[in-house]
Amino acid sequence: MRMVARHEATKDLGDRILKVDHAGEHGAVNIYRGQILIARLTARHLVDELKAFGAHEQRHRAIFAAELHLRDLPRCRSYLLCGMSGYALGLITGLLGAGAISATTAAVERVVLRHLQHQLAVLRDNDPHAVAAISAIIADEQQHHDASALHLDGDAIWPRILSPLVSASTEAVIWLGMRL
Q1: What pLDDT shows up at residue 156?
Q2: Which one of 97, 100, 111, 139 is CB 3.0 to 4.6 Å from 170, fit for a cystine?
Q3: What is the number of other CB atoms lying within 10 angstroms of the CB of residue 61?
């Protein structure tokens, strides 16, 4: 087992960030599970892409789970909330169709990418293992965002309706997770 030597304040922040990121990845896994279930009826052409995105999120969750295990940390108290709310969001947006699915993914990933970049900046010189875990997922998250945004070309309704709601909800879940 590796020793994690870090400044105490940054250690606590890194630990909290990893716990919240783990919970967030659990939420993302469940968003895709809900969307895949319903997209088989409403957006069949997206199902394979959603399955690939879901597989990425499962790998991301495993990366953060492994890091929590190495640090002997429990998962975030928001873990179950993220899972249940993610699944509900996936089901609802799946029912609304391809545009809603893509708008939701683009909005979630935009917020997540901004937070990941901030986390890297804060932890860069103090917690190399947290930085490595976070860095390991950024390319996938960017791909999810970019592919979903491409699907929205010409679709003006769902991004206008869902982006502010989904972005605010994602920010709220992250904020809550950091305080639990």
Answers
A1: 76
A2: 111
A3: 21
Contacts of 145 (CB under 8 A, 6+ apart): 105, 106, 109, 110, 113
Of 123, 126, 22, 28, residue with least CA distance to 76: 22
Rounded distance, CA 14 to CA 165, Å? 28
CA–CA gap between residue 60 and residue 132 (Å, rounded): 12
Asked if 43 contacts 97 with a C-beta cutoff of 8 angstroms, the reply is yes
Q: Cβ-count burial of 153 within 10 angstroms (0-12 exposed, 13-18 middle, 19+ buried)?
A: exposed
For residue 8, pLDDT beyond 90 = no
| Nearby residues of 124 by Cβ (< 8 Å), 6 or more positions away | 131
* 11 SS3 class: helix
Q: Which of 109, 107, 89, 113 is nearest to 161 (CA)?
A: 107
- Angle (CA) 147-67-27 rounded to 5° is 45
Contacts of 111 by beta carbon, 8 Å cutoff, 6+ apart: 167, 170, 171, 174
Longest dimension (CA), the chain: 52
